[in-house]
Specification:
single chain, 55 residues, alpha+beta, two-stranded antiparallel sheet, Alpha-Beta Plaits, two-stranded antiparallel ribbon
């Protein structure tokens, strides 16, 4: 199961995109979207300034 994004609090800063080691995060309509390629490493969770991502 991939990490989850709370789209109601995602600020669209794209910090998580750069933090993902497998390029599983893209931006769609100004919010992060995590694909099934996610390896659940948690790198994005620690980098998100809005605390919008959880495992």
């Amino acid at each position: 199961m991939a990490a989850k994004v709370d789209t109601s609090i995602c600020g669209g800063c794209e910090t998580c995109v750069g933090a993902c080691p497998v390029n599983a995060i893209t931006m769609e309509n100004g919010v992060a979207v995590i694909s099934d390629e996610c390896i659940e490493c948690g790198a994005c969770v620690g980098e998100c300034p809005c605390n919008a991502i959880s495992l």
